[in-house]
Design brief:
single chain; 488 residues; alpha+beta; Nucleotidyltransferase, domain 5; seven-stranded mixed beta sheet; six-stranded mixed beta sheet; 17 helices; 23 strands
Length: 488
């Protein structure tokens, strides 16, 4: 059987997805599975690392990649800021605090009061609960016994890769998601580690995303159903690899992401650190991207499905209901602050809301308002990009929400600009391409994406609807301004 398949494995906030492509960059097949997040205290969010590995193994065995050919390499990606704390015997000490967790608000206040300039100058980011540094500071203040046991700190995909290969490393883009990373010198910052109370030696060696990390062990092969000896490429963060997979590889391209979170990511030729954004290196060496992000996007629809709809309701049914409501949802507005908010407010106390309800409001209005509210939140994020005067010449829509024609159309009209939707653009597809780069199937990162990325459709805004949504957006912002005092 021909050995020509590349495997990408993505660990998102809600589940694991795997994608197989061939050596020409063409999509072959994929599969996914969910794992849970626990919320032991309001505002907390944790996951068990064993769930990631078990879900991946289940998904891979269900997919059975060997039926399509032979896998020659794989690469992994994951959400950032998910620190896996390990003892001297490489055993997990406690559940991982994930990026949506808001418990470290007071630690962030402390950091901003005493170390704001140092953190921003060194790590290019401002302290916020999503980052690893304040999370570790919370542990120092509240679970000192836990922190005293830590001998190794890994991160989501890197921990899984350790289980696959026995080797522990981290790529520099993932490292940027910790606030322990000295961006200019591309190394861990001893001073920032000291502030959090961790030993710098607990952090793994830093490599590049396309580096060879090792080969699949016999035990991992037995667990996954893959063949022992498959080359494993380091990989990187899901946000970076998603932008790459969507073909955003030139300055001025802007990603609009409708996934668990919502992102507005602008590609740049150099870093543009700003107190109201996130700043990351791109998968393409030398490039960067600026991020503004809303904490809750497509996860709002999942929340609505799970809590407000009959058991078994699917997203297509929700879309059909939303389509029955006109633009503006008959006066209903939704603000997607179910987990506080990042851009542009950076306010963990904000909460989600439906406003404008009446006896005439139906479930379709609620559904439509939810889709419009997330689109408005993305537009709100984009105001920061406009304030920074970063040039944008193209919008690319990605994420699970982009599969909805209605939601895609709403985003297009809210932004009043053409929007491209790639045929395949999820993180696991990008990781599969990166696996090919890592073993030389593709000459470099740009060659891989130019061969593998295809556009599925391009949407054009409706002028009348765009004008209507511009007026609605101003109302959306006014509602925020009034309610912020209630939540504060």
């Amino acid at each position: 059987m021909k050995k020509n398949l590349l495997l990408g494995i993505d660990f998102g906030t809600g589940g694991c997805k795997v994608t197989l492509i061939n050596s020409k960059g063409k999509y072959v097949t994929g599969c996914s599975g969910e794992y849970s997040t626990s919320h032991p205290v309001p505002g907390w969010a944790e996951q068990n690392p064993s769930d990631w590995y078990l879900t991946m193994c289940r998904v891979l065995k269900e997919l059975n990649p060997e039926r399509y050919g032979k896998v020659i390499a794989l690469s992994l990606d994951s959400y950032t800021h998910g620190a896996v704390l390990l003892d001297a015997n490489m055993r997990v000490i406690r559940p991982t605090i994930i990026w949506t967790d808001q418990r470290s608000v007071s630690e962030c206040e402390f950091l901003n009061k005493h170390y704001r300039d140092l953190v921003f100058k060194t790590a290019y980011q401002m302290p916020a609960p999503t980052w690893t540094l304040p999370q570790m500071l919370w542990l120092r203040n509240n679970e000192s016994d836990t922190l005293s046991k830590v001998r190794h700190i890994s991160f989501v995909k890197d921990y899984i890769r350790f289980l696959l290969t026995g080797n522990m490393t981290v790529d520099y883009i993932e490292a940027q998601g910790t606030l322990f990373f000295d961006v200019e010198n591309r190394c861990w910052s001893k001073r920032l580690c000291e502030i959090a109370g961790i030993d710098i030696n607990t952090l793994p060696p830093i490599v590049t995303p396309a580096d060879l990390a090792g080969k699949l062990s016999r035990q991992a092969a037995a667990d996954t159903g893959l063949e022992a000896g498959i080359k494993v490429i380091t990989g990187t963060s899901d946000s970076a690899i998603e932008d790459y997979a969507a073909g955003a590889v030139e300055p001025g391209q802007c990603i609009l992401k409708l996934a668990t979170a919502g992102n507005v990511n602008v590609m740049t030729a150099k870093a543009h650190p700003h107190p109201e954004t996130l700043t990351y290196s791109h998968v393409v060496p030398g490039m960067w991207y600026t991020v503004t992000a809303t904490n809750a996007a497509a996860v709002c629809q999942r929340w609505f499905r799970d809590n407000c709809c009959a058991a078994g309701t699917d997203y297509d049914s929700l879309d059909r209901l939303a389509a029955q409501s006109p633009s503006g949802a008959n006066g209903v507005f939704f603000h997607p602050y179910l987990m506080g908010e990042r851009s542009p407010y950076w306010d963990p106390d904000l909460r989600g809301s439906f406003t404008g309800l009446s006896m005439a409001s139906g479930k379709g209005d609620l559904n439509r308002a939810l889709l419009e509210g997330v689109a408005f939140s993305l537009k709100d994020c984009f105001r920061t990009i406009e304030k920074m005067a970063l040039p944008v010449h193209e919008f690319i829509l990605i994420g699970g929400g982009a599969k909805s024609n209605l939601w895609s159309r709403i985003v297009c009209d809210v932004f009043n600009a053409p929007v491209k939707v790639p045929a395949v653009c999820d993180a696991s597809f990008g990781s599969a391409l990166l696996a090919g780069v890592g073993i030389g199937v593709f000459a470099d990162e740009l060659s891989a994406i130019r061969q593998g990325c295809k556009t599925d459709k391009e949407l054009l805004p409706d002028a009348a609807n765009a004008a209507f949504y511009a007026a609605q957006f101003e109302k959306y912002r006014k509602i925020h301004d009034v309610l912020v005092e209630v939540y504060g």
